[in-house]
Amino acid sequence: MNTQLAVTNLQQSAQNQKSDYVVAKFGGTSVANFEAMSRCSEIIVADNNVRVVAVSASAGVTNHLVTLCKKDLSADERSENIAGVIAIQDAILNELSLDADLAHGFDETIKAFKSLASEPLKSKQQHDELLSFGERLSSYLFTQVLRLNGLNAVRFDVRQVLKTDSQFSKATPDVAATAVAAKEHLIPLLKEHVVVTQGFIGSDAHGQTTTLGRGGSDYSAALLAEAINAKSVHIWTDVVGIFSTDPRLCAKATPIARLSFDEAAEMATFGAKVLHPATILPASRSHISVFVGSSREPERGGTWIEREKSQVPGIRAVTQRKNQILLTLKSPEMLLASGFLARVFAILSEFNISVDLVTTSEISVAITLDNAPNASRPELDQECLDQLAEFCHVSVENNLTLVALIGSQIQLQQQEVNLMNVLSDFNIRLICHGASKHNLCFLVEQSESDFVVQAIHSRLLEVQNAA
Ligand code: ADP
Ligand code: ASP
Ligand code: MG
């Protein structure tokens, strides 16, 4: 079945026969230790509809694994990072005794981890294999915590159902194959069990382990919800919902009770780390509502993301994404010529580089690219730059931040003057607005971006919300 057909089928079945199932996802801090895991288990006990639980690696583990993937690691660094992973698991294990079925799998997984992590890796496939251990380990421990709380929990290897292509470190899910595998292997378990599985990881057509990119467990949860026809996905994290900006940056940021799929997708795309950017895609196409709340304080509620019934006007949030690269490509031949942009984009696509903002002038095009820290592969390879340099002058600027204003209908009019006033205090490198009415973006120096976000929040959002 081709992907488009599969998606259409899923959408139809989503409308026809949605189940009451809920997929709950618990992020790294929510499963950081035994105490945090126990709090999460209370959330699951309280909601009988939660039948699939997708867990992240315990906080800190994936960072160790990313370090272990590096080429030029000293022997000391290698053992420190291996020990770091083991210490996090041991701290949880000290509070638990694993049932025989889980103990066996856990021990085997630890052995496999140590063996792979002890030597330099030879392939991108091995990178993904190594990165997968965080989620594989935390899911054993979390299953036991649920059993301690009286739930009939089973651990399930998500690689049996979450099928992807073979683009290691940034795999694209195969929705059709995932739906078929879920029907066969996962759905039959749900009547009797709470299924604990892994976020972030999947497997390709050859059964090799793949990963969906950093922060990908949110995306996994939405994909699993789509595959089992769940009515909602609950993303449990360390904040009480999605805020008007990162609450770590602005003390006056406020949680947003309701967001449309479009607004949430834009926020995630433009840097609100609380959701992986692709999470909304399956949710929106299959009519699955998404909730975001704090596993520490579930009673405080959170944000519901749903198909919009009515649009809330104005700017609803400001986000930022650091470590952006500005690529400027100049060619006098571009003047009045056709095909220049097509050539540029063909090369970027060959290197699987996703472009964010684009502005053009008569003889140049400026493009922004994401260079996320801790990404398991660099966004821009030298080979790609060399190919571009064959037909244009290439300049690369680093250390920039993309700041985005997000809303349903950003029509500046009244706020235009205020915005220009705020921005006039800073050095703005590039502005983009128009392709979508949901955002207005600009690039600033990274060293200034926190101040830009704080200024926009206090002088536009706080003023608007107080009015
Ligand atoms: P998890 O490990 O649960 O996936 P993340 O660290 O990936 O959690 O995401 C939660 C973090 O996202 C919060 O601690 C917060 O600092 C950050 N964040 C950034 N922007 C926002 C926002 N607009 N609203 C809420 N949290 C945000
Ligand atoms: N453990 C992975 C990461 O840290 C995936 C996730 O937590 O969503 O990126
Ligand atoms: Mg996350």
What does it look like?
- Strand 5 (201-203) and strand 6 form a beta hairpin.
- The chain folds into two domains: 3-239 and 274-309, Carbamate kinase, CATH 3.40.1160.10; 315-466, VC0802-like, CATH 3.30.2130.
- The protein is built from 15 helices and 16 strands.
- Helices cover 39% and strands 22% of the residues.
- By secondary structure, it is an alpha/beta fold.
- The chain is globular, with a radius of gyration of 23 Å.
- The strands form three sheets. Strands 3-4-2-1-7-9-10-8 form an eight-stranded mixed sheet, sandwiched between helices. A six-stranded antiparallel sheet has the order 12-13-11-14-16-15. Strands 5-6 form a two-stranded antiparallel sheet.
- Helix 4 (75-93) packs parallel to helix 7, helix 8 (175-186) crosses helix 9 (217-227) and helix 14 (413-423) runs antiparallel to helix 15 (446-466).
- The chain has helices at 3-16, 34-45, 61-68, 75-93, 100-117, 124-131, 133-148, 175-186, 217-227, 261-269, 280-285, 340-350, 382-389, 413-423, 446-466; strands at 22-26, 50-55, 153-155, 194-198, 201-203, 209-211, 232-237, 258-260, 289-294, 302-306, 315-330, 355-360, 364-370, 393-407, 428-433, 439-445.
- Aspartic acid binds at residues 27-28, 56-57, 62, 134, 199-200, 214-217.
